Every structure is written in structure tokens, then in C-alpha cells.
Amino acid sequence: MDILLGSIASGILLGMVLSLVALGLTVIFGLMDIVNFAHGEFLMIGMYTGLLTAQATGLDPLLTLPLAAGIGFLLGVLCYGGFVKYLLRGPMIAQLLGTFGLMLVLRNIALLFFGSEDRALHHGLLVGKSFDVGMGIIISATKLAVAVLAVLSFVGVWLLMNRTKLGKALTATALNRQGARYMGIPTERMNALAWGIGGATVTIAGALIVNFWSVNPYVGLIFTMIAFTVVALGGFGSVPGAFFAGLVVGFIMEIPGFWDFFAITFNISWMDAVPMTSFKYTWIYVSYFVIMLISPRGLFGWKQ
Amino acid sequence: MEAIRNALDFSDFPRIDRMVALAVVLLLVTFPLFPHSAFAMATMIQFLMFSLYGMGWNTIGGYGGQVDLGKAQYVGIGAYTTTVCLLRWDIPFWVSMPLGACLSIGWSFIIGYPLFQLKGHYFAIATIATSLVLKDIFEVWKFVGAARGLGILPFKYQTPDFLRLIFKEDVYYYYTIFGLFIIGLLYMNWFRKSRLGFQLRSIKDNEEVARSLGINVHWAKIKTYAIATAFVSVVGSFHAVYVKNIEPEDTMSLDISILIALMAMLGGAGSLWGPIIGAGVLIPLKSYLKEWLGAAAGLVGIDLILYGLIIMIISAFEPRGLWGIVEKIRRRKRI
């Protein structure tokens, strides 16, 4: 029983971070119909930012979030202004492969500077502390703090998108670009802003994830796929969709835990034999495929 | 007969195209006679392999406009079928290659049917997902050697072995893949003029109109996907006997899928010469960059940085590929 509850708890906590990871992707897609393959690489940069500043200054990694957000915002705006702007004129395949090229460049720059070995954080105020909630659920303090901060950032972006004039301009651009331009909204700047927001949220997520996940230059791809799945489930372009879909995908990531629970509780021997932990990510790909077939618009999607 | 005549008929290309193509083919035939390093030979074989991959991708991605980024799974199926058949039952290459192609086509029908209900980005990401699922399965499947893969030990066989396609000298491999290359080129020349080829181009231009003209869009896409798959799987089988050591990571990873799509896109998707030009530029560039910058100068990854930058520049400023530039110049001259 405690395996089940533990899996549920860690699925929820992980899911909150994953929804922050996917937020940037869904905002960018909603605004300009482009899928960013380099999304996971932005996250990797966020992870390295968190790790290196924490190691250099000796601060708790959770305090490095503003720096990560700033770097992410700059990176996003630079990528848009220097590259994606030109990419948007071309056909879809050029967009896909172009962002793939961006991903190769970012990944290998990281490889050149940081080397290929796994790095992890070993210090911090909260490392090693945990709460015993009872019924066998033990929640580590870092994961809880990370989840709370992820939700706070998510709410912040949601407020920005829905409660400010800037957010209204963003939504207007997403709904009808031509119309928005006639109303005097600088759509080019809105696109750049979307990339800035996308970059900032995903690097924040990276700086949070590095608290419990080791980082190497190749870590990006799996997060890109996770983000695609979250966005597909929530509906391409939908912000609240990304949040709920993140929680669901968090559960999907915990399938090995549930599998163990069933194998042990009901004593099913063939279930023990399946190496379920090596299929940890397979379920994400499978669920993307199934979600797209059943409901191409996802839970809250409005873009066809 | 009609089909063969069509395949050999290049007369709708301008004269200069035919002359250049002929010169390139002659150069390829005589290449092993010139003094060359082993590295140059390996690069040439890679070039021929990737232009074949690119031709396969070009059917569905270039003529059909369906961005397929999951071709690596069929490289894997072809390569693994050949290796497993050879190691377990000693089945020669010329039997296991069609077998692998049949398996690939069967699998492509199974996943193609649901896949082609998706469009655009959704389709592209779904193809990646299917490819990665297959890779994950192969990484734990003991029968095919799990994550460590399978290796063919060449000294067990009497070389040169033309049935199992195991040679010591690369020249034999070169001419084998060159033969496949010529067959592939002729097939593509037939394909672009075939009924399916025209159907695909109309689907690419406007799917609704194509449907209203009575084309079974879904079925046409699935058929073309199977053709592309057969190409990729055959070259995958060749890859297995040529490299002799296959693992899920270097046959089925996303990088391979993207590289295959890149060949056609960089050269010019939807044209006969596109994939060949793309492979001819990219493959030597990639391997020599790696040799000079990666291995010699000790800068890990800098070759891939340059490579990625080239991809970015081409896709941002010349999305129709190198062939697009040629056509632009021609159009300007005519006017």
C-alpha cells in the first residue's frame, strides 16, 4: 500500500514540475504554430545554470531561480530575433529541422563546455530532509519545495496571460494575427515575448529539476518528448490544459511504481519478470500516440 | 516493359542535368580505381547509403509532403532482421534483406493506418514517438542482444562471401551499394512519373481538392509510406553487414531519423536529384568535420555545432534546399 501512495504522491509532485516544463511550448505553439525541438535544451541550460551558480556561490539552488529566469528570457528572445523569425517564412519541414539544428548547437555547446559526465547537486538547505506524512508516504523536502515553486511560477504566468494588458495582447495575437496588427498590437514583439516567456519558464523548471535530477548535455531530448506529450494531452496552445496534463503525465511517469505495487500486492509472478523501469519513458511515447488518435485537440485545445 | 522504359527515360530533364548526372555516375563507377584513403572510401559508401535513405524519405516527405521523422525504426528492423537471421540460422543476405523489407512493410502498415489520421506537426511528433517506442523495446529484448546489440564476426566466414555479403575489402561493399543506388535512382525516376507520384503531389498541394478528385488520400499515403519503408529497410540490412556491429542507439535513434529527412530537405525535397545532392554535400562535410575538428583538434562536439549551424542557416534562408537555389538561378536566366 505504501508503494501505491508513495507513487501517487511523487507522481503529483513531479507532474507539477512537468506542467511548468510544457508551459513554454504551449504558449509558443499557440502564438505561432511552431514546434520547438530545442525546448529540452533550454531546460538543460536552466539545469546547468542552477547547478553552476549554486556550486559557485554556495547558495541554495532554489535561490538561483531569478538568474535562471533572466538567462532563459534572454535566450528565448535572442533565438526568436536571430533565428526563428526567419524560420517562420518557410514551410513546416524547414521549421521542424531548423529547431532541430538549434537543438544540436545548444546541446553540443554544452558538451564542449561542461563535458559529458553526469553532474548532480549535493548541497542545499533542504537536501536530505523529508516529511513523513503518515501511511508510509515520505515526501522529500526538495521535491515539495520544487513543486510549490513550480505551481507559483505557473500561476504567475497564468496571471500575466489573463489579467494584464500585455497578456490580452498576446491572446489577441494568438487568435488572429492580422486583426491584432490592425488594432495596433506589435505582433512581432508579441512573438518575441512569447519566446521570452517560454524560455524563462522552462529554464526555471530546469533550475528546479536539477535539485533531484542529475544533468548531462543529453538530458534534453527526453524532456522535449515529455513536453510534447503534456502539450498534446492538454491541447496545443492551452495554458490550463498544460497544468492538468502535466499532472497526468506525472502519473504516467510513475507507472513502474504502480506496476510494482500490483506485482507485490497480488503476487503476480510474470509481472515481476518485466523490466518495467526500462520502459519508464516508453509509456510517454505510447500515451502521446494514443492521445493524438483519440482526441487530436487534447483536453482543452482550441487550435486545430 | 512500359515501366522499365519509363524508368530509363530521363528526357524531361534539361540537357545539362543529364550530362552532369552521367558524369557523376561515371565518376562513381571509376572512383575505386583512383588512389584513395580508406576513410574516403568509407565516406563514399556512407554517401551512397544516405542518398538511398534520402530517396526513400523523398517519396513520402518530398512528393507527399508528410514530414516523417521516424524512419530510423525501419533502419533498425532491416538491420536486426539481417543480423539475427545470419547469426541464428545462417540465412544469407539476399534472403534476409527481402525478409526484413517485408517485416518493415508489415509494421509500416500496422502503424501507418493510425498515423496518417494525423496531420502536420502532430504527425511528425507521432512518428518520432513510434520510432522511440521500438528502440526502447529493442533495448531490453534479450533475443536481439538488448542494449549491447549484436556483432557479426567476420573471421568466421570465408571472405569474400557474396551470399552473406561479408568482405574484407570495402570495394565489394562499394559496388554492392552502388548497384542498389542505381536501382533506387531508376525506381525513383519511374515513381515520380507514376500514377501514385502524381496523386501524392496533388495531396501535397491541397488534400481536400485531391480527395474531391476521387483520390483515396489515406490509402495513397499508406502505400507511399510502405515504399519509403522498403527503401530504408533494404539499406538498413546493408548497414548491418557493412558495419557488422549494430546497437539500438546507432540504428534507431532520433538523430538517424532526422539525418535521413535532412538529406532530402537540404538537397531539395520533392525533386529527383535532391537527396543525392543533399547526401553528397552533407555526408563528406559531416565526416571530415568530425575527422579534422573532433578527433584531430580534440574539440568534442564542435563538428556537430557547425553542422547544426549549417542546418539552421539553410532552413531559415533557403528552405527549398540547394536544388531550390539552382532552380531560382535558372528561372532568372530564362527571364
Question: How would you describe what is shown here?
Answer:
The complex is a heterodimer of chains A (304) and B (335). With 304 residues, chain A is mainly alpha-helical. Helices cover 72% and strands 3% of the residues of chain A. Chain A has helices at 2-32, 39-57, 65-87, 92-114, 141-163, 165-175, 177-182, 187-209, 220-234, 239-253, 255-265, 269-273, 282-294; strands at 130-134, 137-140. The radius of gyration of chain A is 20 Å and the shape is globular. The model of chain A has no long low-confidence stretch (mean pLDDT 81). Chain B has 335 residues and is mainly alpha-helical. Chain B is built from 15 helices and two strands. Chain B has a two-stranded antiparallel sheet with strand order 1-2. In chain B, helix 1 (2-8) packs across helix 7 (170-193). The mean pLDDT of chain B is 84.
Number of strands of chain A: 2
Helicity range of the residues of chain A? Answer: over 70%
Count of discrete domains of chain A: 1
Shape of chain B: globular
**Helix count of chain B?**
15
Strand order of the largest sheet of chain A: 1-2
Helix content of chain B: over 70%
Largest interface: A-B, 44 and 43 residues
What is the domain tally of chain B?
Answer: 1
Q: What topology, given as strand order, has the largest sheet of chain B? A: 1-2
In round numbers, the mean pLDDT of chain A is 81
**Gyration radius from CA atoms of chain A, angstroms:** 20 Å
SSE string of chain A: HHHHEEHHHHHHHHH
What overall geometry of chain A do the principal axes of the alpha carbons give? globular
Oligomer: heterodimer
Alpha plus pi helix count of chain A: 13
What's the Cα radius of gyration of chain B?
A: 20 Å
